[in-house]
Design goal:
heterodimer; A: 191 residues; alpha/beta; Beta Polymerase, domain 2; five-stranded mixed sheet; two-stranded parallel sheet; globular; B: alpha/beta; Rossmann fold; four-stranded parallel sheet; 11% strand
Chain lengths: 191, 201
């Protein structure tokens, strides 16, 4: 596959996961609209159809012992302004990991400007801050997020600075502190 | 002091004594926000040992500190926090901007980073380097001691207004903040901001 990992057992496990994705997730009537890619180091990239399809795929992956995905490594996004990856403006990237098999699966969800992605906080509580970061810097809303407000920029900041149109040197100064508060949506309580 | 208990002192002698006491007992308030903070720990640690020059009592309360050692990148979100710490320090107080980031913003010429802490507070000594070597920081403290020795009465700093801070952070020209409320259409065209006003505290 590549030079970075030559562990044969690992490569076999990853290939098994890839085959499972080809058979169960990227083919069949349910997989209409999905697309399975492989990046330059041979890791699978599954483009899901829409938000509901993403939730379905995540639930399937978590329940599937053959891939045994149980960990959300990273959740980020990128600005597809030049439309190299489809007609939609943004692409949300979900980097999933199996802590037992050490294999990886990447999900990609294209969303348009103003379109919301579903929240993964029900599946992984760690998605909470990652989705807040994506909302802060790209302006992608996450439907059903318990506490969707800015996490990196000041809450009085306007605009979303990682969008390609944002002037990179446009700063907004604040001469006063912002008082501590939990936002319009308080933290979820234990039930 | 004489034998009967009465004391006497000439004013200029007392002033010199106060200067001598102040410059040799600087109490630093460390404000380390990134890798310069690690280098500052080395300065304060036993190897380089800033206490040889009297600046040994590191106070994490600004009320008890003389010297604000700003080490690291200051974002625009952190700027009011740093300014509040500076306001809480009692006069006389001095500021050392340690490293490229706190002196000029360093490599972070972006939307989120303050281009030097001198936009929000007066700075006495700048220390170049990314990060500076510990000897550089010690040299800055020794230089600050000379400053204290030469000129004790220092003008207190004034808090910048919103417009002053805005001008300082946008290369001395006023940015229309309302234009930040832009939107992007699905075809990629940019719509300028339409929000009439934004409430700021």
């Amino acid at each position: 596959m590549t030079a970075y990992s030559k562990n044969a057992a690992f490569l076999a496990r990853q290939e098994k996961t890839n085959q499972r994705l080809r058979d169960k997730y990227a083919s069949g009537a349910l997989a209409e609209g999905r697309k399975l890619d492989f990046d330059s180091i041979g890791e699978p990239v599954l483009w899901v159809k829409d938000g509901r399809d993403l939730m379905l795929v995540v639930k399937m992956l978590r329940a599937d012992p053959a891939v045994s995905i149980n960990y959300l490594s990273s959740l980020t996004a990128y600005d597809n302004q030049d439309r190299q990856d489809g007609p939609k403006r943004f692409v949300v990237v979900y980097q999933l990991f199996s802590t037992t098999l050490h294999t990886r699966v990447r999900l990609k969800l294209a969303v348009d400007d103003g379109e919301a992605a579903p929240t993964l906080t029900k599946e992984w509580i760690g998605a909470n801050w990652l989705e807040r970061e994506v909302w802060d810097l790209f302006g992608i809303r996450f439907e059903g997020h318990p506490n969707l407000r800015r996490i990196m920029m000041d809450e009085r900041f306007t605009g979303h600075p990682l969008r390609k149109e944002y002037p990179i040197k446009q700063r907004e100064p604040f001469t006063t502190n912002i008082p501590f508060h939990l936002g319009a949506n308080p933290l979820p309580t234990e039930k | 002091m004489s034998k009967d208990g009465s004391s006497f002192a000439y004013p200029f002698v007392l002033q010199d004594a106060v200067k001598w006491a102040r410059k040799n007992s600087l109490w630093p308030m460390p404000f380390g926000t990134s890798c310069c903070g690690i280098e500052m720990m080395a300065v304060l640690g036993s190897h380089y040992d800033l206490s040889r020059f009297g600046a040994e009592v590191v106070r994490f309360s600004p009320r008890q500190a003389d010297l604000l050692l700003v080490a690291g990148t200051i974002t625009t979100k952190m700027a009011p926090v740093l300014r509040t710490i500076y306001d809480q320090m009692l006069e006389p107080k001095w500021v050392i901007a340690m490293g490229a980031c706190s002196s000029s913003g360093g490599i972070f010429d972006t939307y989120s980073v303050l281009q030097g802490i001198d936009e929000i507070m007066p700075v006495d000594v700048y220390v170049p380097g990314c990060p500076p070597i510990p000897e550089g920081v010690i040299h800055a403290v020794l230089h600050l001691q000379k400053i204290i020795d030469g000129d004790m009465d220092r003008r207190p700093a004034e808090r910048p207004s919103y417009d002053e801070a805005l001008n300082a952070m946008s290369y001395r020209k006023k940015v229309d903040v309302l234009e930040a409320n832009w939107r992007v259409n699905t075809d990629g065209s940019v719509v300028p901001g339409t929000v009439a006003s934004k409430e700021r505290v």
